Amino acid sequence: MTLAILASRALSGADAPAVRVETHLGPGLPAFTVVGLPDTEVRESRERVRAAILNSGFDFPNGRITVNLSPADLPKASARFDLPIALGVLLASGQVAVPGPGGAQAPAGLQDLVLAGELSLTGALVPMGAPLALALAVAREQPGAALVLPVGSASVAAWVPGLRVLAAATLAQVAAHLAGAASLAQAEPGAWPAAAMPPCLSDVRGQPMARRALEVAAAGAHSLLMVGPPGAGKSMLAQRLPGLLPPLSRAQALEAASLAGLASPGGAAAVLQGQPPFRAPHHGASAAALVGGGTRPRPGEVSLAHHGVLFLDELPEFDRRALESLREPLETGRVAIARARHTVQYPARFQLVAAMNPCPCGWRGHPARPCTCTPDQVARYVGKLSGPLLDRLDLAIELPAAAPDWLDSPPGESSEAVRARVARCRERQEGRQGGPNAGLQGADLDACCALDADARGLLQQAMQRLHGSARASLRALRVARTVADLDGQERVQVRHVAEALQYRCTLR
């Protein structure tokens, strides 16, 4: 065989598109060329592959070797193509022969095999990044295929249900498996990490309206803005929101862990606990840090909070461009990062919780501490948040300062009790429209949020007084639907609309 074709996977955003690794050995002066839009790491694979083949006991062929990574218009990065390139050289030179019927270019033993792995110079396979992204793509697009990965990566990929993952330690082991001389062991999934106990809502004393707003936000997956002086409990409340949310399903946990693995090699295990991720970036974060970007695009905080909570404390202190970049993912649940040669997409279906002071000094409206800010300073501070961004927040509440005797207040209701109500509410929404109320749009919104004349009149009158946009009206309607679900009512009534309108404080 002078031409070998193997299957592998590239990375493009959160997806792992299929790549055909075509290796041809022909006559001519010795040369080793890799084409198909390879990046630097892929071009460097020539030296790693040459040394790995020699140190694994094989001969490196003398001839003109051409490796084509197809499709040619898809950028290829990282060293994960080392293994299929090395095997392609061995197959094309006849040093490894695959038994069984099949054409010369696609032996039967290779048709359902996907290979990926970085080679060291000794021929050993090195653990690679983002194994979950590759495993999820293979399980979704190639049912029945087997995925060959280095030992250190195979145990992570084996978490994907229904996927056969084979673990290999060296190039020689994979070559023996293809030749039928030995079989690679099927990887066993690592231990599923135990869920950490989130902080309990009973730690929050007082603030009954804020606690209720947090429950409404959890029940409908709504975004929430809390405005209050220092020490009012804004951060404390936000940190307890993940404990009120339903646990992630296995598919959701794997998707979130896949994104975490794209950002850092060890990030996947921290997410695989069934607990929704909680991200709280510093207010110095740039737009690229929030939504993703870079020369080689990487997922940002909005994607790392996928299926979870993104908490932005001191909201006006963030860069204006960074905040405005949140508008698209808040509406679409996705982030598209365009580059000259390609565009990558990351999912970003997160729940935004933000907190801010009422003014730069923080004491505006405090009963005991005087505010030292001028009206112009307050206007500039609040003006850092644009109207379109505020329009995309479902709930906005004001928190009063903590009472002097707050220590004497009894503990609030526990997260467990609130979580049970939230779970029942989410089940009602899943059965009715297949998702939380925050995503209601179009015909589903009309069908699920039908109002009688009194409720519609109240909503229209309130929006006129608040100078609310059509988007603000729809968001208030979705919140009213969630309040009705918590109340166990099939129809949205006047009292539900009235409560929803209480959660739309005006900052200007």
Structural summary, described in words:
- With 508 residues, the chain is α/β, with parallel strands linked by helices.
- 37% of the residues lie in helices and 16% in strands.
- The protein is built from 21 helices and 19 strands.
- It has helices spanning 40-43, 45-55, 82-92, 131-141, 151-157, 171-179, 208-220, 234-239, 250-263, 267-271, 287-291, 301-304, 320-324, 327-332, 375-382, 387-391, 415-433, 442-448, 453-466, 470-486, 494-502; strands at 3-9, 18-26, 31-35, 64-70, 113-115, 118-119, 125-126, 146-150, 164-168, 185-186, 224-227, 278-279, 292-293, 298-299, 309-312, 334-338, 343-347, 351-356, 395-398.
- The protein has a 5-stranded parallel sheet with strand order 12-15-18-11-19. A 4-stranded mixed sheet has the order 1-2-4-3. A 4-stranded mixed sheet has the order 5-8-9-10, with helices on both faces.
- Helix 7 (208-220) runs parallel beside helix 17 (415-433) and helix 20 (470-486) packs across helix 21.
- Mean pLDDT is 89; it is low at 102-108.
Short précis:
The chain is 37% helix and 16% strand.
Shape: elongated
Mean pLDDT: 89
- Rg over alpha carbons: 28 Å
Biggest sheet features: 5 strands, parallel
Distance between the termini: 74 Å
State the low-pLDDT regions, or none. Answer: 102-108
- Classify the helix fraction into a percent range: 25-40%
Percent strand equals 15-25%
Structural class: alpha/beta
Q: Reading side by side through the largest sheet, how are the strands ordered?
A: 12-15-18-11-19
Q: What is the count of DSSP helices, taking H or I runs of 4+ residues? A: 21
The tally of beta strands, per DSSP, is 19
Oligomeric composition of the shown chains: single chain
